[in-house]
């Protein structure tokens, strides 16, 4: 469970690379992003029905089963509807046999393994039930952890569930979101929407930190901690899950934090660099501080005050502190 641009693609690889885990990359994409908390009740119910299918029945979320409730967005039209499955190519299992004739890297998978697993939904269900020990899903479209707790409590006799909450400095998240806006002029006309969304998200996640009913089954990870010490944080996470960290995950962490694979993208595909999972995490951790304006930083520190206190992020007092990368900003 996390927020948009909080480092979830990198962190999700802890589960995506483990062959004992059936990993779903953002299965709730088709329902849109309900940051304002005003989602239609029927759509809200369908979101959890889809999670029910994933976690209880190992059922692949095929788009045609849910299109009646899908958000009418470019992403849904161009990815989910076209290939009948949302972002399937970001789940490494679908980039290898028996779903693909051989194993491909993530940036090649979509074309090489087209049309994807939707036409092999029964096979996916079988693999999930027979060949894996756990199911994991990256959720960025539910803000209240209480809703997930209620969902899992309703299946307490069927599921041994745990929740990992990933957080990141909200100033860094905003800069990353701004960087990915398209066209570039979009930010100028819609910046207030970005701030309003972030304010709601920060308030919701600050409340999530106070959750006590499931305190033994919830683990909070800061992106900054896993970027600086991925091996230790990953081992702690797997201990929390009561699972063994696999060799594939261990090798990935070493590779992903020492190498930068952004050069593999052609000029026309350069936008994919933002979603790369191998970007030398230590070096990339503070890049946002070079470009962030002092005005934006001050605004985020104001609207996300409780969040920053809850998760241990320090305020900068001036532009000089912001630019001084030797000065720590989390404790």
Automatic annotation (TrEMBL):
Keywords, alphabetical: Transferase
Keyword Membrane found: no
EC number: 2.8.2.-
Main EC class the enzyme belongs to: transferase
Sulfotransferase domain boundaries: 67-310
Matching InterPro entries: Gal/GlcNAc/GalNAc_ST (IPR051135), P-loop_NTPase (IPR027417), Sulfotransferase_dom (IPR000863)
Gene Ontology molecular-function annotations: N-acetylglucosamine 6-O-sulfotransferase activity
Pfam families linked: Sulfotransfer_1 (PF00685)
Keyword Transferase: yes
Example GO BP: sulfur compound metabolic process
Family, similarity comment: Belongs to the sulfotransferase 1 family.
Listed name of the protein: Sulfotransferase
Origin species: Oikopleura dioica
